[in-house]
Amino acid sequence: MQSALDGICRYFGGPYDPATRTYRASPVPGIGVVRRAFAKRDDHADYFHGMPPGARTGCQMVVTIYRSHEFRVAVGGAENGMKQRNFEVELGCFIRSRTPHAEDAQDDVYALQDAIVEWIRVDRTLGGAVFQAGEHIDGGGNNGISIAYGQPETKAELTKSYLAVTFSACEFVNA
After folding, report:
1. Which of 54, 55, 116, 127 is deepest in the core (most CB within 10 A)?
2. CA pair distance 23, 34, nearest whole angstrom
3. What is the pLDDT of residues 35-75, one digit of tens each?
4. The pTM is what?
5. What is the C-alpha to C-alpha distance for residues 145 and 114, in angstroms, rounded to an integer?
């Protein structure tokens, strides 16, 4: 499971940076850093990492596999076969926006959602990390890609929001 998690993080965040424990070169516009675990401290700069100066909205993504299911398909006797591992993946997108109007921040969240879904659809293996990402998987909890929004909050001219993108994916392992 850890190799799948790392691969998904690399697909959305670029190479792993061991010093910061993050993936800091996202190909998806609007994502500053990607994490495979929740951070001890929340660094506001991470939301805007690598973005042009003055970027109004940024995101820190936390990739989590909340549930997995494994089964074996025996082929050619007692010792040969494959294991299929199905994962329920959540891309937790924590968003910070400096837009003058909260409505504009919400528009940026919708644009981020579209960019993330489009990036999943570019390669359903997510760069070779998994198979069938966002597709129907028997025994998977999600079919397709599900989106959930959190209630935005505004305080001191900063809008905070949350977007969850969930989908199933699987991997095959020699058993």
Report:
1. 116
2. 5
3. 999 999 889 999 999 999 999 999 999 999 999 998 887 77
4. 0.92
5. 11
